[in-house]
Structure to design on (140 residues):
């Protein structure tokens, strides 16, 4: 009886080990053959988007301070909102173009490696640009 139970346990052990080995080999081959990346960094993309929106918001606030001192009809340009007096410090790798007077202020921002671009209007409202809108704005 002892030999029979020992051989049965050994057979079950070999059977389980072979199924595990086949499964691991199959998964490894599947991962190697896949065209998708093994690790996808979504947190970095979200940080890019947040940073672009944050830069637009900071520029808008710097321009509001500029208009309070110099008048709303004067154009707030990069020269003014990047000056020490208004406190805007651009983030690394964020592309920002903004400016205008209080009624015509507009801006666009995005990360150089990201796909998301944001637009700010004269009221300070930030919205995400869709690709069709972005292509239209590039042409005009």
């Amino acid at each position: 009886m002892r030999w029979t139970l020992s051989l049965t346990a050994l057979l079950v052990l070999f059977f389980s080990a072979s199924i595990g080995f086949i499964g691991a080999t199959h998964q490894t081959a599947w991962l190697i053959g896949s065209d998708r990346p093994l690790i996808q960094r979504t947190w970095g993309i979200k940080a890019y988007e947040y940073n672009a929106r944050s830069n637009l918001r900071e520029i808008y606030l710097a321009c509001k301070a500029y208009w309070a001192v110099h008048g709303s009809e004067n154009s707030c340009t990069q020269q003014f909102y990047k000056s020490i007096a208004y406190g805007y410090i651009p983030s690394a790798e964020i592309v920002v173009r903004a400016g205008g007077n209080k009624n015509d202020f507009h801006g666009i921002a995005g990360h150089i490696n990201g796909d998301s671009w944001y637009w700010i209007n004269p009221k300070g409202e930030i919205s995400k640009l869709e690709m069709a809108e972005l292509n239209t704005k590039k042409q005009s």
About this structure: Residues 1-34 form one domain.
